[in-house]
Amino acid sequence: MEKIRVTFWNEFRHEKKNPVAMEYYPNGIHAFVKDFVESSCDDIEVTLTALDDENYGITDELLDNTDVLIWWAHTTHKELPDELAIKIRDRVMAGGMGFIALHSSHRSKPFGFIVGTNGNLSWGRNQREIMWNMMPSHPIAEGIPNHFIIEKEELYAEPFYVPQPDELVFSGWYEDGYIFRSGLCYYRGIGKIFYFQPGHETCKSFYNPYVQRIIINAIRWASPAKVGFKVTNDCPRLRTAPKDEFDAE
Ligand code: ZN
Hints:
Helix content: 25-40%
CATH class: Alpha Beta
Radius of gyration: 19 Å
Order of helices and strands: EHHHEHEHEHEEEEEHH
Bound molecules: zinc ion
Number of helices: 8
CATH superfamily: Class I glutamine amidotransferase (GATase) domain
Number of strands: 9
Strand order of the largest sheet: 2-1-3-4-9-8-7-5-6
Largest sheet: 9 strands, mixed
CATH architecture: 3-Layer(aba) Sandwich
Low-confidence stretches: none
Strand content: 25-35%
Distance between the termini: 42 Å
Mean pLDDT: 97
C-alpha cells in the first residue's frame, strides 16, 4: 500500500523552554502528532522537521517526498525566508501538495502566500470552547459529532481576515461569547489547504480524540488529487486548437 507522506514542520521553540509546553509536548507538538497519527493509521507516515534544522527545515528533497505539509508556527514567522514560502506555495498550487496550517500558523508566510491573507485576528485568554460541526458531510468532519468541547484553548476571535473559505467545516464558540471560524478549506491551483484553529502550545487540545480525528481526516482530504493531465507552474502559450478534434471526425 502506498502511504500518504506527511511532513510536519514545527517552529519547535516553545517546547524547549516553556515548562507547560515541555510537559504536554516533551518531544515537540510535531512528534506528538506523528505519534497519534502513525499509531492509528497504517496508511500515513509522518516526517518531522523544524525551523532550526538545515535550511530552515525545508529542502527540495523533503518537499519532493511530501504529499501533505503540516505547519505549526507562532513567534518566528518572519524568520522563514520569503523564497521558501513561495516555493511551498508553488508546490501546493502547481504540484498539488496539501497544506494544513495549525493554530498560530494563521499568520505564517506559507499560509498567507497560498490563500492570500495577512492572517490577522483577535485573541485572548485560554478558555473553554465548543467546536461546532458546520458541514457534517464533509470528509474532514467524518466521525465528528454535532459539537464537542475543548476544555481549554487560546481564544481566537472574529473577524478573521482571511478570504471567504471555499468550505467552512468547523466554527468555535468560546465561553466568553466570542466566535471564530475554526476549520476552513481552500482550493488553490490543484492544491487543497485546511486551516484548523486549536493547538496552543500550553493547551492539551492535541490530546482531544476529536481534534486528532480531524487532523487525520484533513491529511487524507488534503493529499494530492490524481489530476488527469500535467500541470506546470507557468502560463503556457497555446499552440493547438481543440476544435481540430471536431474536424477530424
Ligand atoms: Zn497560541
